[in-house]
Amino acid sequence: MNVLLINPTRTGMDTHVTPPMHLVYIAHAVKRAGHNAKIIDVHYLYFKNKNTDQLKSKYAFECEMIDRIVEEDFDLLGVGAIASGYHFTKRVVKAVKEKDPKIPVIIGGGMSMSLKDLWQEKTDVDFLVESDGETVIQRFLDVYPDKEELENIHGLYVRSNGEFISTHKPDLPRNLDYIDYPDWDILDNLDDYMDIQREWINGTLPSELRLSSEDRVLPIVMTRGCPYKCTFCYHVNSIHRKHSIEYLVDYLKHLKEKYNISVLQTWDDLIMVDRRWLSDLSVELASQKLGIRIFTSGGKPNFITRELLRNMKKGGFIRLSYGVESGSQKMLDIMKKRTTVSQNYEAVKAGVEEGLFVHINMVLGMPGEDLSTLRESSAFLVKLAGKGIINSKNVSFSYATGYPGTELYQYMVDHKIVSDTEEYLKNQTGVVGYKYNLCGHQLKILEHMVKITMLKMDFMYGLYYRKYAMALSGLIRNGLKLVAVLFLAPDIKSSIKKLIGKS
Ligand code: B12
Ligand code: SF4
Fold this sequence. Notes:
Layout: E1 2-7, H1 21-32, E2 36-41, H2 42-52, H3 58-71, E3 76-80, H4 86-99, E4 105-108, H5 110-114, H6 116-122, E5 127-129, H7 134-143, H8 147-151, E6 156-160, E7 163-165, H9 190-203, E8 217-220, E9 223-224, E10 241-242, H10 245-259, E11 263-266, H11 275-288, E12 293-295, H12 306-314, E13 317-325, H13 329-334, H14 341-353, E14 357-364, H15 371-386, E15 395-399, H16 407-414, H17 421-424, H18 443-464, H19 468-488, H20 493-502
Parallel strand pairs: 1-2, 1-3, 3-4, 4-5, 8-11, 11-12, 12-13, 13-14, 14-15
Antiparallel strand pairs: 5-6, 6-7, 9-10
Bound molecules: cobalamin and iron/sulfur cluster.
Cobalamin binds near residues 267 and 430.
């Protein structure tokens, strides 16, 4: 069979281009099953095209891409993405089914199960993958079109009389080593993806840690799944699974030898669930002296120990990103983070003291957020800055956004903040949006809290290191912005005054 795999464009303000690792894994599994695979990364092509043809609208570009996809020679269409890929995928499926209704369509990734009802009611999609797709696609290709056998595949939803039915839960071994190395050669523009990744990472780093133009970067998943259930996060299953240390060391050697990789970026849900394993992995990486630097996301402060951090540093880990989210215990509890404010504080401090670049994610505007919880978050960060631990460059602020399939999204449905998921997905695609006021405070209030906090952080940080010019420039820069908005938006003056006064 010829299998065409599509990474769709995404709705909303998302400009982020990443290598479609999910499809690279699936393409390899397809080939292993003895079939042909081709990937078209429409999201990537859109951004490449946008740079050369500013005038073409996204819609016009998508129409051209759909025509091109329909012209391809394929017997199975597979699409994988996060939920914001829904609208483009819906159009592609319609066009493909109009051309030949017998071509089967299979959907995977975050948008699969979280939008099950939409696929069922609004499209002619035939199959949904519940979780990992490597084994599912191989079994699918082995048995297609035998319906009875298809219904026996673990983790596959099959449309039957209009409804998606699955009789077997996904088969998810805790040891991930049964999954082959992804075959990156399938991407025509691998070097370009690496350049884009490098620039993205550099945008998040202080100058002394920036990567050079020689650095070659790829993403990696060392573990899959997360046992927690934070209210804004989406998971289909909560089993944490991982590769063995031997597998990962061999894979890293392979990446080094074949692609000359010098930097890896982990895309695990939560890499630290088994800290003994992570510590041992780090020790082994240190002894192998591969010279690969690793940037991680998905750190959880309550897993941190000094020993772990020390070993990670020796093993090549450079950057650690913590999901701190808030400086208010009330908000941490509402989000079901299962961490405490002091754990977060100590983990940031320990990470910096052990020589890692620590990045912190904060999320504002969750239901229950009020001026006092905002002030607590501000005070938390300002305290860290005042001790010279971090400055505003270490922090990313996001605004609460419910993604389908999360508890937060259900809250929005229950409170009639959103009633039509399809409509919602047209432009609401990430925390960057904050189109919906979930906490009773306008976006402006939250934005001001961010500006005031950054102002205070950089000022305090500058004072700590006696860099008075830095402290002053931060004060003037952020202060001017603040004054401008106070004049422009008198209706929120009083709330902001309260914030400045007490944070
Ligand atoms: C890298 C990443 C991104 C990248 C883009 C990733 C991409 N592929 O397009 C960037 C940084 C841009 C990004 C942005 C966001 N992301 Co993100 N991101 C991830 C992350 C960390 C890794 C994805 C990945 O490659 N995983 C590894 C691969 C191997 O796993 P996989 O993608 O699940 O693929 C497997 C299966 O799903 C299946 N499969 C997937 N596709 C297909 C296709 C076929 C045909 C088949 C058969 C099977 C199949 O098989 C694959 C192999 O087993 C995941 C978390 C995670 N660890 O998965 C979150 C995640 C995908 N992101 C998520 C979210 C919410 C966001 C943001 C909204 C964050 C934000 N708050 O702003 C934005 C979205 C912006 C937008 N406008 O859409 C959610 C998605 C929720 C959902 N319902 O879709 C996730 C799951 C995180 C979470 N737990 O909440 N993200
Ligand atoms: S935010 Fe992090 S800890 Fe919470 S459920 Fe998601 S991956 Fe797990």
